[in-house]
Design brief:
single chain; 7-stranded parallel β-sheet; 9 helices; 15 strands; 29% helix; globular; disordered N terminus; binds flavin-adenine dinucleotide; CBR-like
Length: 319
């Protein structure tokens, strides 16, 4: 289970930096023999490993920047050790970016989930949505090739536990840019040959232009047709009841109009239960959720859809 709580970091950045640095300092010295073991086995080094790189930051150099849609950039970084390294981030895990705005006393720390293949050497890739006046996202969007970003981490993933038998299904729910941890977790689960868990993924976006990882998800669906279902919910003007219908794509994915609401969740849950599956991973976590606060409340709040379906708080993991 995650030792760190990224949401708390966001709310109390100064507190978070102090806690991270002091905890990491002690633990680093206890952990050094593991690094020697890694290199003895000739495994790639990890750019970020715990707890060392909570204390000591790394600089990642930007190699390319691509504008993906109206507010999101894909930024590719080179790892400091080049092809001898992998990032060290696990499926659903994240890095903490750090920068100190001009005139500020405290650094801004924010979690971001890499989207590259995590065993790929020499590279790390982020998809970053820019928020109006967003401290970290505006800074990251300003980076040009050749410039560097300070990072710490890795932040652990969701504490998901694989199920080797075929009877398990889980529900993953993403809102907007919250897709990145959900996508990373999905890829990790599907890549594990020992895991037979089936995934129902529901992704709520404002408009179809915000479906920024569609190609990648459709590719995963083609590769794992029995293990992944994706439902897209479009809530903006295109998703209004009287708007022209949103065409389904060639691979048969479905667009729903409106928010990720009770009827969508109920329908997806009935697919899980109708197929006679055990709902939950091997630890009993039924739902993994990452989205803006309003969506998290509507889905997993006290009066939310999941509570009405009898899903308890401890059966829901919020990134
Ligand atoms: C585990 C984890 C992984 C994440 N991975 C990614 C990722 O891969 N890509 C990515 O783009 N983001 C990701 N995020 C969100 C990211 O960490 C920042 O919260 C986000 O970029 C906003 O930070 P900021 O400093 O730019 O905005 P702030 O300066 O904190 O806020 C600026 C304004 O934006 C609003 N705002 C901030 N965050 C959100 C939000 N999530 N939804 C709606 N409004 C918001 C605030 O209310 C405020 O009005 C992740 C979050 C978590 C918890």
């Amino acid at each position: 289970m995650a030792t760190f709580a990224p949401r708390t970091f966001i709310r109390h950045p100064a507190l978070a930096s102090a806690a991270i640095l002091s905890a990491a300092g002690t633990a680093y010295y206890l952990s050094r023999p593991n690094f020697a073991l890694d290199s003895a086995q000739n495994a790639p080094n990890k750019t970020l490993s715990l707890p060392k790189n909570m204390l000591f930051s790394q600089l990642l150099k930007v190699t390319s920047v691509e504008q993906i849609n109206h507010d999101t950039k894909k930024i590719t970084f080179e790892l400091p050790g080049g092809k001898s390294e992998v990032s060290g981030v696990s499926p659903g895990g994240a890095i903490l970016t750090q920068h100190t705005p001009e005139g500020a006393w405290f650094p801004v720390l924010r979690p971001y989930t890499p989207i590259h293949d995590l065993d790929e050497r020499g590279t790390l890739q982020l998809l970053v949505k820019k928020y109006p006046n967003g401290k970290a996202s505006s800074y990251i969007h300003s980076l040009q090739p050749g410039e560097s970003l300070k990072v710490r981490g890795p932040l652990p993933g969701a504490g998901y536990k694989a199920s080797p038998d075929k009877s398990h299904s889980i529900l993953l729910v993403a809102g907007g840019a919250g897709i990145t941890p959900i996508y990373s977790l999905t890829k990790g689960i599907l890549a594990d040959e020992e895991d037979n868990t089936r995934i129902q993924l529901v992704w709520g976006v404002n408009g179809t232009r915000d479906i920024i990882l569609k190609e990648q998800l459709e590719e995963l669906k083609r590769k794992f047709p029995d293990r992944l279902d994706v439902t897209y919910c479009v809530s903006g003007p295109e998703g209004k009841a009287d708007a022209p219908s949103l065409a389904a794509g060639a691979s048969g994915e479905e667009y729903r109009k409106g928010y990720v609401n009770e009827s969508v969740i109920k329908e997806v849950v009935s697919k899980i239960q109708g197929a006679g599956k055990t709902w939950g991973d091997a630890k009993g976590t039924k739902v993994f959720l990452c989205g803006p606060p309003t969506m998290e409340d509507a889905v997993a709040g006290k009066q939310g859809v999941l509570a009405a379906l009898g899903v308890t708080k401890k059966e829901v993991y919020k990134f």
